[in-house]
Prior knowledge:
Blueprint: H1 7-16, H2 19-24, E1 30-32, E2 35-38, E3 50-53, E4 58-61, E5 67-69, H3 70-78, H4 82-93, H5 100-127, H6 131-138, H7 143-148, E6 152-154, H8 160-167, H9 172-177, E7 181-184, E8 187-190, E9 195-201, E10 207-214, E11 222-224, E12 237-238, H10 240-250, E13 253-256, H11 259-267, E14 273-276, H12 283-290, E15 295-298, H13 304-319, E16 323-326, H14 335-352, E17 355-356, H15 357-366, H16 374-388, H17 393-407, H18 411-418, H19 430-434, H20 436-439, H21 450-461, H22 480-492, H23 501-507, H24 510-522, H25 529-561, H26 565-583
This protein binds zinc ion.
Amino acid sequence: MKAGSGINIGDEIKSRCNIVDVVGRVVALKKAGSNYKGVCPFHNEKTPSFVVSETKQIFTCFGCGATGDVIAFVERYYGLDFKGAAEMLAKEYGINLDGAFRGSKNKAELYEINRQAATYFFRALRERANPGYTYMKNRGISEEILNKFGIGYADDRWDSLYSFLKEKGIQEDKMMELGLISRSGERYYDKFRGRVMFPIMNTSGKVIGFGGRMIGDGEPKYLNSQESDVFQKKNNLYGLNLASDTVRKEDAIILVEGYMDVISLYQGGIRNVSASLGTALTENQARLIKRYTDNVILSYDADEAGQSAAFRGLDVLYKEGCRARVLKVTDGKDPDEFIKKNGRGAFLELLDKAEPYGDFKINRVKSRYDLDDDQQRIDFLRGAVKILRSMKAVEADVYIKKLAAETGVSEGAIRFEYSGNNSQEKGFTRAEAVLGSRGGDDTDGTDIPPVEQELLKLMLLDARFTAIPDDTEGELFHSSMGRVIYEAITAIDDGKRPIDEYRLQELLDEKSYGYLGLIEKNVITPGREDEIFKEDIATVRRQNLKDKEEKIRIRISMADEDENQEEIVDLMKQLMDIQMQIRK
Length: 584
Ligand SMILES: [Zn+2]
């Protein structure tokens, strides 16, 4: 991409489309250190020298020198011009390009107006005594931090900002578009009045909007700029422009609810902190975070609203592949209060104790039950197992052990419930969880049960797992897609690993190959492959025996209707034999 082409829309697309996903659809990428590597699609090569960096969002080929960002890749791969590539990506990622190619001039103008407004508020806080300044001082915010965040003040006259901008020759309709003013009849008036003003900046440091906190009583307590061409709440995080370097360096970000939490933590020496600009974290915000780090610590208010917002945020982050934890503020109501009272060291201690995704979710369910009561203990386990099913196999495994120790229910029983073998409890299967991001509501028989996913993963890791023990009592793969993939693996298997991905890709249709990619990525079996294999084979065997049992029962009832005593006796023997095997 040439510098300067399509300025804003390019940034917008780049912030929303992950280059690893886009390239990964057409080039088989493998994780190599912090990057991804594959065979270059732009020149002929056997050994991969095509590298994609997720953090930098660029690709580079060490063979032929091709390089660029996500748009450049799409341009070149699909033979499109910039506009075509941008449109293609925008369509796929649901980015609204309406008028984007005409409107970039408008955007530049809107940024400039916001910058002027921010300057106006900034001066207003500093030039003479005002309630805004007093308020921030009382909250213990230093001069340095006020400047760093560009904090300002909107006075309570009705036309201060309006007159200022008007004098600069700015059109009313532009001020309206940004939500800086409103109109009543023939009169225009300022929207932000009697408020401390927090300019909201994007990661390139441009002012995209404002948050205003009411001083004293009055509603709403916080007022945000309305959505505009330059301000979309769901795509931005407050404070990320200042936090991003530290976030990268510490490889973690702390997410808080409010402006004041960000500012207080920052002043307290915790600098990898940002706030979602509403209560619920969005997918786009999670993707934005992933550009800098995979590790997210949610530190929301201790009240119920804050905790349930954290609960929802966790799922969003987990789906986007982040490792999320929840920090509970023990003393005080929010992080702002806590750090002021207890200091940085105490906050870092809380940070260490932040609960992982699973613990937080399970503990929330647990708090509703009395574990001394047998029935409640079972109800709790049912709830907990539902949560486990939304986790990756290896994580779920850890929690199964924990739950067993905690409730005194055997690991086997929990595992059985978890595997979905308890047919009355039709919950979320692990396969749905693993494949959720792509599978979605897909119920056309393409789901692969967890046990089959694990078996496929093991076969990809080590050829000896493709040799199936002869006591499985039936088919190993029951899902049609599982079977297709298994057959493809055995068809090309030469006993060597890694397996020849290209031949696999040739044999499989796009959908199966895509699923296999997700399984490779998401099913983790670190170091206990043999154990997991044994467990999986045992699960398959048990399932097959149960299927047989069911079939025999049907035949018994048919023999019964037929009053065929001989047949019944014979079938009863078989039934008892199978039941004995199941119990073993
Ligand atoms: Zn190349």
